[in-house]
Amino acid sequence: MAHPHRLAAVLALILLASPAAMRAAEAACAGEKFPAGRAYAACEDLPSLGAALHYTYDASKSSLSVAFVAAPAGAGGWVAWGLNPTGEGMAGTQALVALKGGSSSSAPAVKTYNITGYVALGGASTPIAFPATDLAADEGSGGKIRLYGKLQLHKGMKSVNQVWQVGSSVTGGAPDKHAFGPANLASKAKLVLAGSKAATATSPASEPAPAPVAGGPAPSSGSDSGASSSVAPTAGKNAATTAAAVSAPALAVAALVGFLAIV
Ligand SMILES: *[C@@H]1O[C@H](CO)[C@@H](O)[C@H](O)[C@H]1NC(C)=O
């Protein structure tokens, strides 16, 4: 008999793998319409909390412009995104936080926090390791908050851990503790800067040369006996049929691999 939790996990996996869920994830990046003047070279659908990171990395200046988009866990809540140069989790994260708070009309406030551990944050920003400029936030569709900023990274950073989070409430200008559900705990990933499409100084990897096209197996094989000339066309057809029969399962395998890679 299936354990209910295990069943729930399997259902969650099926849901995650469903085409509808995949389309929804794609739509988080593709569906975003920023105000004029805000454009980004790349976008990543982050793997939890329905969040997306739009970004442009200027390798020559080591500067990273971002627009982090996520829905807060409640109408008066907050969203946060940051880089953790020293670890994988929350502790050590150099965070940008957009807080909606009480007033529904004004734009979310943006603060920076050097998150040292699981301690309550104050209402005032604290200095972070990556000088942050152009901090701003606005509200997107579906109650999402869009958090903008530009971070001066350290020279030569190739990839860095990123962490994000959402919360439901704000007290005294400070983000209240977020929930600790599976999605909250899974909200971390690597952000690859070097060699990414967004890295302006990196030239694209050269395309592999197309495989040389041989004359084909059929024509030359049947030509050494007189009788074979009448057989040759049939042999050619057989070869073509065989090739088609072989390539169908190969395609199926390639499709499956592609599907798994997407999931
Ligand atoms: C962030 O906090 C840690 C721990 O207190 C400290 O070592 C570090 O210097 C702080 N970073 C900045 C940029 O202030």
Entry keywords:
single chain, alpha+beta, Immunoglobulin-like, 2 domains, five-stranded antiparallel β-sheet, 5 helices, globular, disordered C terminus, binds 2-acetamido-2-deoxy-beta-D-glucopyranose, transport
Structure, explained:
The protein contains five helices and twelve strands. It has 263 residues and is α+β, with helices and mostly antiparallel strands. It folds into two domains: 1-26 and 239-263, no CATH class; 35-237, Immunoglobulin-like, CATH 2.60.40. It has a five-stranded antiparallel sheet with strand order 1-2-3-8-7. Strands 6-5-4-9-12 form a five-stranded antiparallel sheet, with no helix packed on it. The chain has a two-stranded antiparallel sheet with strand order 10-11. Strand 2 and strand 3 (63-70) form a beta hairpin. The protein starts with a helix and ends with a helix. Mean pLDDT is 76; it is low at 9-26 and 199-263. The site of 2-acetamido-2-deoxy-beta-D-glucopyranose has 5 residues, from loops.
